Amino acid sequence: MRHRAEITRRAVLAGGLVAAAGCSHASPRPTRRRPPADADALARARSDEADLISACEAEGLTAEREVHVAHLLAVGGSHPATTAALTLDEPITTLLTNSAETLRSLAMGATDGGNAARFASIAASHSAATA
Amino acid sequence: MSDRSALQAAIAAEHAVVYGYGPVGAHLKGAARRYAAGRLTAHQNLRDRLAQLITAAGVTPAAAQPAYRLPFPVADAAAAKRLAAHLENGSAGAAWDLTAASAAQSEARDLAVTWLTDAAVAAAHWGAIPPLPGRPVG
């Protein structure tokens, strides 16, 4: 499925190149770059992981923090600096449970298979941490 | 990997896991044995659902092998738990592959996403899990 989606994207890009070659005299337009597949879902996953990293820091959960850093990197985030200690509004188990549900939903809807697998895997990790 | 070949790989993996839970259960007692029995039933149900999906796609599901080679000798409860963790982590890998190969919002994707969580929870019960359960190594 993922492979088929990539072929489709390539076909679209190739079609765009042909169209541009036929209109070389046209005035330049600002380039619109298509967002990567599942951009909103990836952003949501990064936001959840950033919250969980902050929560782990607030609770002094060093090993768990590293797990969430690995999750953050897997969904396109960058290595976070240690944040200031926060006061948690919710127990970390609630954050994990809610995030797992969100991630399973993101996995169901992801158009890119690799993203779907990453979301599902992170959801699985969060569920295992609260089981 | 196409979704059909991912489904066939998934059922082949589940045949092996169902087989593997035999020696696991044989060396466990009490609560551990009951948990293993529950996981065996879960994997048998999963195998049957995979077979239904494959059949619905017009393909004959891959058959189980007569026997499978265990990755290490299993002679006591500690080794049985290690084997169970090994089986569940392998099962998570098959779930990852099926998740990646299946279409968004499809029945196969739904099955694979739930399966990945179940396998990771069970693997964590038996031992440790990696930060991204099921992700291919390397």
Textual characterization of the structure:
The complex is a heterodimer of chains A (about 130) and B (about 140). Helix content of chain A is about 70%, strand content about 0%. The two termini of chain A are about 30 Å apart. With about 130 residues, chain A is an all-alpha fold. Chain B has about 140 residues and is mostly helical. Chain B has helices spanning about 5-25, 30-55, 75-100, 105-125. In chain B, helix 1 (about 5-25) runs antiparallel to helix 2. Chain B is globular, with a radius of gyration of 15 Å. Classes of the chains: A mainly alpha (about 130), B mainly alpha (about 140). The interface of A and B includes residues 125 and 128 of A.
What form of chain A results from the Cα inertia axes? globular
Question: Number of DSSP strands of chain B?
Answer: 0
| Spatial separation of the terminal alpha carbons of chain B | 18 Å
State the assembly state of the protein chains: heterodimer
Q: Please tally the β strands of chain A and state the result.
A: 0
